[in-house]
Amino acid sequence: MAQGNGVILYSGDLQNPTFKDASLPRHRHPRSFHKDGSKRRFIMAACFIVSLLLITAVIVGPTLAFLTSGSSNRPLKVAAFNIQHFGRSKMSDTTVANHITEILVRYDVILIQEVRDSTGSSLKDLWSRLNKTDDWGFVASAPIGRTTYKEQYVFYYRLKLAHLLSTYQTPDSSDVYEREPFSVEFEYFSVTPGTKKQVVLMALHSRPTDAFDELDHLPTSIKSAASHFKGAGGVVAMGDFNADCNYVSSTKQLQLEIFKDNSEFTSLIPDSADTTSGDSNCAYDRIIVFGHDIRARDAKVYNYQKAMGLSDDATGDISDHYPVEFQLH
Ligand SMILES: *[C@@H]1O[C@H](CO)[C@@H](O)[C@H](O)[C@H]1NC(C)=O
Could you tell me which InterPro entries the record lists for this protein (predicted)? Predict the structure, then answer.
């Protein structure tokens, strides 16, 4: 390869490049033109390669860290949070955005429901905020809903603790669901050193007035997701199921397979819990475990109003729900 002035020059078409020595006399091109053009091409190529390397490092770095490291010394903290009408107006309010971020960084994997932002800019904002604390990944469903009113299911996860394997959108040919469950398969560290496990997290935000019918159908959807993701130890279905009070009374709850004792499902958030931040006292948000190899512990409601000492107004600005959380061992 010929070199001149310390710069590698090349000319000709891309299929058949030929190298030229910049120190050779040139007849066809004015010197400055040729030199500047080559230099520019070289600089552009260098910039392109450097930015490619940077992008690769940013994305692959944390993922590689997960894939190559042997264990985490603690369980994986998971939460499902209905952030009422999450979108640009919420994220453009600095106080609210700070509070939401503070709540979310308690966890390693978070499901957010009621995301309503066709531009996606609030999701990007939130992602940037999370990224200031750690390297976070992001995966979301399409906007889902029967009418023009649609919501997205969104997951953020710590790249060094959870590895995204795949996603699955539950089909719904008989149109049972307003917002069909969306599932994400993650690999994570078991508390047993050197052991990784796979779990499927299934999101559902039920339609309040159809909550009973949707929840009645949920076991079928959980089982289909379980057979779709063969390698996973089980499925954890979670979210705002509207599974209480006016939508699903305590008597109706007992008719649902997901809440029956001795069923194949374990419900981690009891009917007595209050997952609402307002005056109501309802266990709308739930966590249901299905599968032979899922060790979910310490499930509870996170009352951020109490924990963060917030006024009723500041609390209501965040959401009318509290997150429900658990830990995977
Ligand atoms: C957040 O961090 C990840 C990993 O470092 C990166 O891939 C992603 O682009 C970042 N997102 C934003 C919005 O900054």
Answer: DNase_I, Endo/exonu/phosph_ase_sf, Endo/exonuclease/phosphatase
Residues 159 and 220 in one domain: yes
Domain boundary among 49, 67, 85: 67
Q: Is 281 in the pocket of ligand 1 (CB under 6 A)?
A: no
Is the shortest distance between the CB of 151 and ligand 1 below 6 Å? no
CB half-sphere exposure, 33, CA atoms < 13 A: 5
Model confidence, pTM: 0.82
Helix (H) or strand (E) holding 240, with range, is strand 235-240
* CA angle in degrees (0–180, nearest 5) for 249-315-110: 75
The series of mean pLDDT values per 10 residues for the chain, 329 residues long, is 34 32 39 48 53 51 71 91 98 98 98 97 98 98 98 98 98 98 97 93 98 98 97 97 98 98 96 96 98 96 98 98 98
The reply to whether 295 and 184 lie within a common domain is yes
Please say whether the beta carbons of 152 and 124 come within 8 A.
no
Atom of ligand 1 nearest to the CA of 59: 7
Find the 51 Cα to ligand 1 centroid distance in Å. Answer: 14
Q: Specify the pLDDT at position 51.
A: 55
Same domain, 161 and 205: yes
Residues carrying an active site annotation: 151, 205
Q: What are phi and psi of 267, to 5 degrees?
A: -95, 125
Whole domain around residue 275: which residue ranges? Answer: 71-328
**CATH classification at residue 151:** 3.60.10.10
- Find out whether the beta carbon of 60 lies less than 6 Å from any atom of ligand 1: no
Query: Domain end: 29, 52, 67, which one?
Result: 67
Instruction: Decide whether any atom of ligand 1 lies within 6 Å of the 181 Cβ.
Output: no
